Amino acid sequence: MERNEFIKTCGYACIGASSIGMLLQSCVSNKSITANIENENLVVPISDFLKDEAYLKYIIVRNNNLRFPIYVFRFSENEYTALYLQCTHQGNELNAYGDKLVCPAHGSEFNNKGMVTNGPATDPLRSFPIQISNPNILISLKKA
Ligand code: FES
């Protein structure tokens, strides 16, 4: 291979590799945080939804006292949902892909309100009441 041809080939390969990297990075736009529990509420700073001066659609919230993380979806400034990421079929942890939650075990899918959109699961996800108390969102962990 001629030197010029080699450089040209490597250049295209580098451009291709960096484009794929950027594409993958843009797909991974969610954020995972660890939040504190105060008075039976998981305290999530609203500022955790900000990334590059824009609001993320959702974040994943963890705490060592919770067996599974909680998916918090932001519909608007005043409307959020908080869903337990435990599949209602056989209890596996769900993965979040934008506004869709998918179980890697048997393929159940849920929407961002916790409703089943694809079985075998039949029951909706556990959801938690949310109270907005600026500058935080309080997710109530009290048993109903
Ligand atoms: S445990 Fe989730 S689909 Fe079976």
SSE arrangement:
Layout: H1 3-27, E1 31-34, E2 36-38, E3 41-45, E4 50-51, E5 54-55, E6 58-62, E7 70-76, E8 79-84, E9 95-97, E10 100-102, E11 109-111, E12 116-118, E13 130-133, E14 136-140
Parallel strand pairs: 1-6
Antiparallel strand pairs: 2-3, 3-14, 4-5, 6-7, 7-8, 9-10, 10-11, 11-12, 13-14
The structure holds FE2/S2 (inorganic) cluster.
Descriptive key words:
144 residues, alpha+beta, Rieske Iron-sulfur Protein, four-stranded antiparallel β-sheet, 1 helix, 38% strand, binds FE2/S2 (inorganic) cluster
Question: What's the pLDDT, averaged over the residues?
Answer: 84
CATH architecture: 3-layer Sandwich
User: Which descriptor suits the 3D outline?
Assistant: globular
The hetero molecules present are: FE2/S2 (inorganic) cluster
In a nutshell, what does this entry contain?
By secondary structure, the chain is an alpha+beta fold.
Structure description:
- This protein has a 4-stranded mixed β-sheet, with no helix packed on it. Strands 2-3-14-13 form a 4-stranded antiparallel β-sheet, with no helix packed on it. A 4-stranded antiparallel β-sheet has the order 9-10-11-12, with no helix packed on it.
- It is α+β, with helices and mostly antiparallel strands and about 140 residues long.
- The chain has one helix at about 5-25; strands spanning about 30-35, 35-40, 40-45, 50, 55, 60, 70-75, 80-85, 95, 100, 110, 115-120, 130-135, 135-140.
- The protein starts with a helix and ends with a strand.
- Mean pLDDT is about 85; it is low at about 10-30.
- A hairpin with a 4-residue loop joins strand 11 and strand 12.
- The protein has one domain: Rieske [2Fe-2S] iron-sulphur domain (Rieske Iron-sulfur Protein), CATH 2.102.10.10.
- The longest helix is centred in the first third of the chain and has 25 residues, at about 5-25.
- FE2/S2 (inorganic) cluster binds next to loops.
- It comes from Arenibacter algicola.
- Keywords: 2Fe-2S, Dioxygenase, Iron, Iron-sulfur, Metal-binding, Oxidoreductase.
- InterPro entries: Rieske_2Fe-2S (IPR017941), Rieske_2Fe-2S_sf (IPR036922).
- One of its GO terms (molecular function) is metal ion binding.
- Pfam families: Rieske.
